[in-house]
Amino acid sequence: MVSLTRRLGALVVLAVVLVALPALAETPAKVVATIASPAGTLALRVELDGEGRPAYAVTRRGAEVIAPSRLGFLFTDAPKMERGFTLAGQSSRTVDETWEQPWGEWRTIANHFNELRVRLKEKAGAARELDVVFRVYDDGVGFRYEFPDQPQLKTARIADELTEFAVAGPGAASAEAWWIPGGEWNRYEYLYQHTRLDAVAQAHTPLTIRLADGTHIALHEAALVDYSSMWLRRVEGTRLKAVLSPGAQGPKVVRAAPFTTPWRTLIFADSAGGLYQSHLELNLNEPNKLGDVSWFTPQKFVGVWWEMHLDHSTWSTGRKHGATTANVRRYVDFAAANGIPGVLVEGWNVGWDGQWFGNGNDFDFKRPTPDLDLPGVAAYAKARGVGIIGHHETGGGVSHYESQLGAALDYAQGLGIGVIKTGYVADAGQVERVDPDGTTLREWHDGQWMARHHLLVVTEAAKRHIAIDSHEPIKDTGLRRTYPNWVAREGARGMEYNAWGEPKNPPNHEATLAFTRMLSGPMDFTPGVVSLRGKGDTPIASTLAKQLALYVVLYSPVQMLADLPENYAKYPDALAFIKAVPVDWSDTRVPNGEVGQYATFARKDRRGDDWYVGSVGDDQPRTLTVTLDFLDAGRDYTAHIYRDGPNADWHTDGHPMIVETRTVHQGDTLTLPLARGGGAAVQLVAGKGR
Amino acid sequence: MVSLTRRLGALVVLAVVLVALPALAETPAKVVATIASPAGTLALRVELDGEGRPAYAVTRRGAEVIAPSRLGFLFTDAPKMERGFTLAGQSSRTVDETWEQPWGEWRTIANHFNELRVRLKEKAGAARELDVVFRVYDDGVGFRYEFPDQPQLKTARIADELTEFAVAGPGAASAEAWWIPGGEWNRYEYLYQHTRLDAVAQAHTPLTIRLADGTHIALHEAALVDYSSMWLRRVEGTRLKAVLSPGAQGPKVVRAAPFTTPWRTLIFADSAGGLYQSHLELNLNEPNKLGDVSWFTPQKFVGVWWEMHLDHSTWSTGRKHGATTANVRRYVDFAAANGIPGVLVEGWNVGWDGQWFGNGNDFDFKRPTPDLDLPGVAAYAKARGVGIIGHHETGGGVSHYESQLGAALDYAQGLGIGVIKTGYVADAGQVERVDPDGTTLREWHDGQWMARHHLLVVTEAAKRHIAIDSHEPIKDTGLRRTYPNWVAREGARGMEYNAWGEPKNPPNHEATLAFTRMLSGPMDFTPGVVSLRGKGDTPIASTLAKQLALYVVLYSPVQMLADLPENYAKYPDALAFIKAVPVDWSDTRVPNGEVGQYATFARKDRRGDDWYVGSVGDDQPRTLTVTLDFLDAGRDYTAHIYRDGPNADWHTDGHPMIVETRTVHQGDTLTLPLARGGGAAVQLVAGKGR
Q: Which stretches make up the Glycosyl-hydrolase 97 N-terminal domain (chains A, B) (predicted)?
């Protein structure tokens, strides 16, 4: 090999200006730009080393949390952009604003950051330019690359992104991480691993990290538009590096300049709950592009779904077909009787009777099965104040789905369908793409081509006032701000793994999700299996009270009552809470939480002054205390407390539940005893006093 | 998502035969084929799980060392091959043979294995077939995929290989690993990391592993021909997975069927030395395709090289140009005076005066610089029994080099050049490929395109009786067996890092290389810096005795005397050993060694009965004992022992060296005291008695 010295030996003759450059690692990097957050909590600096390699670093309250971390790109058809840069310019600005979510966890969102823009320019060769824009909040940093329009780089064919995240500080060497493997066949549906940060292999984001001093860090991205998802591969120690999801044609991303990448985001907090409270991801997305979206109403739904997972019925037609006229009517009746606005119908259409998994080319998104009078059922439902939730399972046959997309959405709209659950059941890397010339390619669920596909579906659906709930999705990066009809996703192990998973979700799964997957946005987890039983009458790792808590802990504007109607009839107390709990909120707090151990969320009903509290735990009995400091001063609240009974234990019987009602006030402390696999749910009804 | 249950719900109607399949992870895998090694030390089984996913597993002396590990492929244009397989057939055979290396560490190589061939066939869809061939030795396993000729798969466009290596056994959870990061910019030139196996991120091979019970494992590949190099990415725990080096056009590998992949190799041993003693890699390569290669003679060489790394001279022309007629003659004189057959001349040709790093398109491989009379110097050398070692630095401009390749080799042949050192100094992922249609692409040093390039160079060179010593190479996979003129490579941090590395090579670097990089084949490390000084008179982490030991420890059939002629004049004792030590051996033993701590190698001169012993250590003083059980019984040997003096210590002064001569016999024990950064070298001259 060769050192810079050797290169310099060659360069010295013609490029006298470079003579002063010593060898690579000997060069102290030079700070070329700095920016601090509004309150000064975070500070970011941009450096250039002696070879002109740019890096950024972050301090929090004066201590380094991100050591100098490289920036740059590899291309398939051009030299990389990674070194040889000078600073061609910089500028900064401040934004301090608030905006309102049409639906969500918080009504108003504050957006207050200081922005630094640096323009990097190559000193030699093609002299290409690259902007990096940093937005520094008190609770985190977002940065993105902006490729200017330039004759030397009309089209960027990105082989990979070289962005690094070098976690630093005294606690880094023994930091913990919670992660799922990125780039594996089962997409995002893995049990979370809890390891040392320096034992992470290749992870999806959000990646949640806890330093030894209690600092929590979440690494993720925002506004993933027309680009490939970022995985994080550990290079060595606690240094992570972006790896873009593959593209079948060579480049992982192809874009014409000018364009911007998604934001790379780093949230810093003193607690797990602090990570959740950050609005960084939403703030880094573009404002609502759809205008008035009042046509979507957050809602609960039931569905012809859990019975298939229990193997009581099938998606396919035949004797056990679930989506028959009679059976769907049964769910409609249950929904109408309980004020549930939606009924999901899976297996309603033609295409389920062959090898659809990873194929999907037999699906017809406009043709119900012969045993289902869908228009009739939809009318039947509508007359009872209930709407059908549509279902578009593609089996990964995405081009096939796109060929029917407009007609399929028209058809759904004609039936009064307001929400469609989409599905992409195929192994990772197996999405079928058929180009106009007939070429068939295999893409990844989270590559650029699918990022484009999902937005196509969402925008086409928006034209028809339909909301989208994507399963086997691309991960959430806050695009619900820009496209508020993209209401929820799967993208993790949901309730279905409690039907047949081997293993099922462990007792601490939801307390892990709360501070990992849920940092990215709403999840259609499908809670509320009050039977606490999966396929073959096998137990699930939950008490009854915990099932109620999930409606508060795991936010989604569409929340399923996943269980069978007949099971809800057996647990009227539980059903009462589930019927009452809202799906739209004006405020959210996280009174306590430790990743993978326990989590308490308090949320305020957007349509009133009531609060709801949900706590979930792990396999340990524990007692959580919640100080009700979020209630209005001087006001009475009637607390309906749904908590684990003294003998509740998911290993034996999770059903014992005590429902207790008492009056509480601001500043009171709720004491919530959690059983093994337990939880607690509290309804705080605002009364007199204001 | 969806479970197999859900899929089965769909399949049950049309595919009754599949009804019995339970859900994925519930299914106990079924063993469909087994094979044991000749002495029964290792046993391998092939399984198919309930979804038809093939896996292999390995036991050693009855205990599992590799847990069931998946097999398969992703394609960019077709569904993956990974599940849905049945066993369509199997066969086995035994081979027990020996063959001879034309040069090497051992004259004869025993090749004794049991082979199992399984044919897998997809049950549905395209019903593609795939063979997996396992060769099970007592010290390891090699397996490869064979794609049969079949109408459903004429061309394989491989997106990635899904081969896994799940290290198992009681010691796996706390196993250690020595590794360098795969897929990073500096190719293979990284300090070895010593971590727990479950903290490996993405590694190059050979990857060396030590289980808690002392079992050593090396994972690597053999016969990397027309395919992309394999990196190993840890998925979770101690489960590793193949990642192929990228290809700029989408697929990482494009091959027309029928074809075979490289062998994936697993060596198992009770000691680090046991790994080195395995001949698995050579055995899994095809026999010599070049016929008589006696035109290549293993040799030592000096060169116009270290002086550039010290910044005394430059590759580029001008006042400091190293490769001038006068300076090259100086090296020729030194070589002639000391019986050294070769003189390397770097910076001899036109092209070094611009930005050649990562570019290389200005290089002219037929035109010496104006200040060098290369034909005259070559004639001068020849008259003195010395040959010129050629140098083809490409700067990563590989298509440019190929455009001159034939003429360049003809030119070298005309000058009597018998060995050419090639160079590919460009960052990883930056090799420039210009296709015939003018398309420019950026490839990886270890991708399929470069695997092809290197063999093009080697075979073109062979036609002209020229040997190749590749720097910034693709890794070694034993192809010297098939192409014995591919004599050595770099592919790790060599001596040059002791000139200018930041940091330099640590004292235990060579004791790490011995059981990591060196498992793959000869390395042109360029030992013998007897000054023990790098650029700016900085110390290197070595004693003088260790520099001598390197000639025995780090095998190469071309070994440099890297230092300046004037420095050798100062250390005549050291020079005496270096002049004497052979570069071709008939036998090799590893009397002791622990990865990264110390290593002792004993090798027998191929041209006689003398033995040579070399030991290297780390930053601890230590005493090694070597039992001379490899000597002939009843014979006198005169031992010339070059060992660290009592005050030797690389931190202060590494030069004190004691040269001791005594008579020894078979079974005697040599006691070798090693200083900090120390080593020992022993010449055992066979005398009377036989």
A: 35-287
